[in-house]
Design a protein that fits this description.
Oligomer: single chain
Strand order of the largest sheet: 1-2-3-4
Structural class: alpha+beta
Number of domains: 1
Shape: elongated
Order of helices and strands: HEEEE
Length: about 100
């Protein structure tokens, strides 16, 4: 095995690992958003990733992901908020004012 082949193999392995890591974070975020909406008596509609980048938070380097959270309070109107996660930790939830039944 040549050095070039080894570099290519390591690069492909790192890309695959990061792909699975992002999938795991996304699955965790969907569960978190769904549970959050249940606790707040809201209807969870959808979660979409808006921004993904590598960032430092509290001295740790990991993926910082901003999601668009769509929810409803009455089943008639839909509201859009944001949820920010750093790795597998949600660090911020921003929801607009919504109508309470």
């Amino acid at each position: 095995m040549t050095l070039g082949s080894l570099v290519i193999l390591i690069t492909i392995s790192l890309i695959a690992f990061q792909f699975w890591r992002l999938r795991g974070i996304s699955e965790f975020s969907i569960k978190y958003a769904n549970n959050y909406c249940k606790q707040q008596n809201l209807q969870f509609l959808s979660l979409a990733r808006r921004a993904t980048r590598i960032s430092a938070y509290r001295g740790k380097l990991d993926w910082k992901i901003v999601y668009q959270l769509e929810f409803s309070s009455s089943g008639e109107e839909a509201y859009i908020g944001t949820m920010t996660s750093f790795g597998s930790n949600v660090i911020e939830m921003n929801l607009p004012a919504y109508k309470i039944n």
